[in-house]
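INFO  loader      accepted 1 record
INFO  loader      residues=105
INFO  predictor   begin
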Amino acid sequence: MAKQRRRPVRRRDRKGGPSTGRRKSCPYCRDKIEQVDYKDISSLRRFVSERGKIRSRRITGACRRHQNQVARAVKRARELALLPYVTEGGSDHRERGGRDRDRDR
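INFO  predictor   done
INFO  writer      dumping tokens
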């Protein structure tokens, strides 16, 4: 009979930082909301970054079910022009040294 190799157990350090403490509870589960409404722009804005990207579950603290509903609601609100796809303002990507930097020369 062959010997079984023992794998080293990886343990996370609990010294501090974002991994300590409890995980955020889902704001929709906390308020016992079944469906996320795409017309509720004020609550959807919490799930969208300043640039217009949908924030991840890790950042928002939403459960998987409600995060999927939030993503669908944000996309639906964007289609109906309730939420912007991209926020206006800020600098142009060329000023920051984007991909087109070499083509402009």
